[in-house]
Structure to design on (381 residues):
């Protein structure tokens, strides 16, 4: 015979469901509270911290699993193992992020990998100097975009690094030199002028300044036309909408607009303005260098979109043919001498190897050729 405890009744099915629902709600409230403490020390885009946390975890995962094309690295570095080439490709992606930098808007993030190192405005150069019996050392600053920076290549494969190696071979008894790589991805001639000005005002005094440009000046044409940075649209959105949004504002990526031809400006007029801006930026950079007694050298770089006979057979580079370079580069080539610019745009004409490590950036072997041409034009004494 069983007895029932007075005052207690077993929960039915409906009661159990209600209790489970209440407990789940309480658990979510606790989780939200904990996440709010972690995330909302400052405002985050989402109203619920749990949603924000899911997005952060998702973004972390996406960055770690970003697709990396390793095959071109195998082609341009056949003597290196697949493991080494995979590491190089991974580090190129991991380090390809930007941080805010006062006055010049942004720079590449600091990064300390196995083969790639960036700190502040400098990409590490290896070797970064060559000392002889000369009592003085010439400081050489290199400016440019991602090709000067050395995207997808090692510290010892960049243009400044190869410049030191070539200088050592040619001038073993020459003047001592020290190089600095101020190349920053997406930068073009106007941004380099701003960077040079900022460096000078902060006490930097190069003896020589080398500028390699052309691709970004005419590829990110909207930026160059209006003399804006590649990320200027982001800064405009932040100031126009984001500052008054209480954390609800989401940036819209309109980067594709940087590449498009305008609809409201005649194309010939647009292209001529790009060329005019390019040479004016060079003239102003030269003026800044003259002001501090630095010798300046300017080079228009090779582009896969211009006079590359093997472009369509090249398994790596971009295959676009109907580009503004067909119109602009011949004009630049014609005007280069009178503007004190060395036109290197024809370097790809008879190239049969692998001059690119990806669609746009130079391979280690071609980097050495570019560095050699730069050294050909310089007189270091």
């Amino acid at each position: 015979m069983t007895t029932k405890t007075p005052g207690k009744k077993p929960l039915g099915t409906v009661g159990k469901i209600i209790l489970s629902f209440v407990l789940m709600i309480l658990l979510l409230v606790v989780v939200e509270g904990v996440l709010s403490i972690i995330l909302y020390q400052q405002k985050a885009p989402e109203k619920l911290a749990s949603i924000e946390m899911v997005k952060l975890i998702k973004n972390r995962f996406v960055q770690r699993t970003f697709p990396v094309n390793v095959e071109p690295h195998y082609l341009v570095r056949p003597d290196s193992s697949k493991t080494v080439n995979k590491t190089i490709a991974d580090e190129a992606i991991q380090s390809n992020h930007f941080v805010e930098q006062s006055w010049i808007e942004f720079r590449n993030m600091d990064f300390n990998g196995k083969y790639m190192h960036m700190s502040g405005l400098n990409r590490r150069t290896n070797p970064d100097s060559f000392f002889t019996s000369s009592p003085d050392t010439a400081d050489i600053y290199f400016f440019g975009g991602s090709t000067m920076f050395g995207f997808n290549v090692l510290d010892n494969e960049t243009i400044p690094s190869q410049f030191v190696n070539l200088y050592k071979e040619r001038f073993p008894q020459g003047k001592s030199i020290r190089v600095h790589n101020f190349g920053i991805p997406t930068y073009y001639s106007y941004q380099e002028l701003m960077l040079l000005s900022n460096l000078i005002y902060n006490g930097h005094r190069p003896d020589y300044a080398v500028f390699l440009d052309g691709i970004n000046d005419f590829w990110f044409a909207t930026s160059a036309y209006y003399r804006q940075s590649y990320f200027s649209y982001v800064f405009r959105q932040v100031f126009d909408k984001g500052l008054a949004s209480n954390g609800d504002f989401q940036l819209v990526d309109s980067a594709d607009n940087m590449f498009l031809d305008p609809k409201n400006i005649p194309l010939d007029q647009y292209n001529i303005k790009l060329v005019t801006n390019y040479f004016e930026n060079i003239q102003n950079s030269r003026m800044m260098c003259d002001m501090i007694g630095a010798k300046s050298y300017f080079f228009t770089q090779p582009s896969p979109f211009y006079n590359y006979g093997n472009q369509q057979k090249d398994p790596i580079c971009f295959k676009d043919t109907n580009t503004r370079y067909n119109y602009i580069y011949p004009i630049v080539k014609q005007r280069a001498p009178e503007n004190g610019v060395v036109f290197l745009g024809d370097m790809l004409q008879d190239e049969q190897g692998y001059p690119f490590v990806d669609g746009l950036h130079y391979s280690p072997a071609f980097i050495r050729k570019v560095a050699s041409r730069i050294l050909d034009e310089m007189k270091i004494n």
Notes: Residues 61 and 70 are 20 Å apart (CA to CA). The first strand starts at residue 98 and ends at 101. Confidence is low (pLDDT under 50) at residues 41-46, 59-66. The two ends are 112 Å apart (CA to CA).
